[in-house]
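Q: Sequence in, structure out?
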Amino acid sequence: MTKTFVIIKPDAVAGGLIGDILARYERAGLRVEAMDLRTIDGAFADRHYAEHVERDFYPPLREFMTAGPLVAAVVAGEDAIAKVRELNGATDPAAAEPGTIRADHGASVRENCVHGSDGDDSAAREIALWFPGSPG
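A: Exactly. Output:
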């Protein structure tokens, strides 16, 4: 049993896709252990995306992620990180496999509906940041 961190991004929340996205995770045998609908500020976005803050693509990403509500969640299950990444699809919706969340709903590399941790270390860091005090 592993845990991972997921964001249902502002574009997906605005598009009414929360239920569809969560249902896909649940149908894959994953369980939501924590979830919060919130709007984040720039400082929080900077902490989450710390490795990208100095990159050219970051300012528009920061603006997008702080523009409206998003859903942060901890998802658990067998091979949770790999399963979420497979269900999410490639970062670029145009390159994502048909039937993935991003292929079905994503508009661009930035507005691609979801984020999922890319490994054990990032999952632990992101869970601790978004859900302080939660067992990792």
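The helical segments are 10-14, 18-27, 42-48, 58-65, 80-88, 101-105, 120-130.
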